[in-house]
Amino acid sequence: MKTYDILGYSYSAIKLRKLRAALTTLGVIIGIAAIVALLSITQGLQVSITNDLNRGLSANTLIVVPGSNDLGGIGGGAGSGAGGGLGARSGSGSGLGLGSGAASSGFALYVNYTSEIDALSPEINSSTAVIERTGYVNADGLNSSVTIYGVDFSQYAQQYPTTFVAASGTVPTNPGNNDIVVGTRVSDPRENGTELFSAGDNVGIVWTNATTLPVANETYTAQVSGILQKVGGFGLAGPSDTGVYMPLSQAESFFGTNQCDMIIVQLKNSNNATITDVSKAITDYFGGQVTVISSTAVLSLLSTIFGTIQLFLGGIAAISLLVAGIGIMNIMIVSLIERTREIGILKALGMKSRTVLSIFLGESAIIGLIGAFAGILSGWILANVVAGLLGSGAFGGTGFKVTPLLTPEVFLGSLAFGIGISVIFALYPAWRASKLKPVEALRYE
């Protein structure tokens, strides 16, 4: 028989047993839907976080923080010896806590180390120190918790030209001591257009000084020179929507220190070789007492983590497909028993064993094909429903926007997996059917 005739015969057999075939197909649909939904949401989440990180990172920057990397983590490139964890930061700063071990080693970075770093390699364009503390902005009697950064406005704007940009007001290149720039959520914490203050207004900057006893709140009045455009997502060292930026000299005076929490190094390019060489030069210069973190390494680590998560979730979802496969095997064996005399008649009329085998495999392939397509559609719908609930904050919190992503690899892989599982589990019943002897089959009651 021709392939078309075999598939037609297989489809006719399925139509004669609609309910049984529907229940068998449902098992495939559930398994494929679970795979597609989980992987679509995971890949969408990866793209969303990666885009947010890209907005807060600059590919040609390195972040130098005090503390050696004893536990491994985010490195500055192969052979650099400079890794980093997202661990505890020395000093009283806050934020992501880049680096580790500074407190135990006693090593500290100072603002004037930037000139020494600049001289380490011709591949270094510039470096700037960052002093970071947790504090408050007082506007109209309302206190908002913020992270306060002391930076060189001119160099910082050069390192982050797409995110350290004012949506209202200006980012002064030569600011006065009382000039500050704030993130969009500092002036509009609820992100609903209700601003606590605008560019040009005066606000109070409050920092709790716990380095002396008794603990005291240090306060000064600053003028908001500019409000940054929305950055979104996560900021590893770049501009943040909840950050307040003051001139570095004012931060040294206000916080009473010339120690910095990190030094951001801008390279002339983002080649891996450059990142590796400069990272090693910085680490060696400070005798291994610093951790050098590269933006590209952070993104690479993120991709590796999400790849592992996708593999894990896909494996869990695939278990349900194995259950569906067992159901297909069961239904095929039952079908074989019911159709024993039919098979005997066909073989007595001259049908070859391989044709009988093809008919049974064709039935399973059609079930797998229908189940895979229906499962992909159901999984995509389910992924969008879950993403909508996540964005609305239905599971708690303020919500996190995720756009499910159905890649061609997931689509084709799910399709092939659904058909493959169906055919594999139908091999034994199909083989048994093909081996039936016509005389014995015709005598079967």
Which short descriptors sum up this protein?
two-stranded antiparallel ribbon, 445 residues, six-stranded mixed beta barrel, alpha+beta
Question: Could you describe the 3D structure shown?
Answer:
With 445 residues, the chain is α+β, with helices and mostly antiparallel strands. It has two domains: 3-53 and 301-443, no CATH class; 61-293, no CATH class. Helix content is 50%, strand content 18%. The chain contains 13 helices and twelve strands. The protein has helices spanning 3-16, 18-56, 102-105, 113-118, 153-159, 184-187, 248-255, 272-285, 295-338, 340-348, 353-392, 408-434, 438-443; strands at 61-66, 109-110, 124-139, 142-151, 166-169, 179-182, 202-209, 216-228, 243-247, 259-260, 262-267, 290-294. Strands 3-4-9-6-8-7 form a six-stranded mixed barrel. A two-stranded antiparallel sheet has the order 2-10. A hairpin with a 2-residue loop joins strand 3 (124-139) and strand 4 (142-151). Helix 1 crosses helix 11 (353-392), helix 2 runs antiparallel to helix 9 (295-338) and helix 9 runs parallel beside helix 12. The longest helix is centred in the last third of the chain and has 44 residues, at 295-338. It is elongated and about 100 Å long.
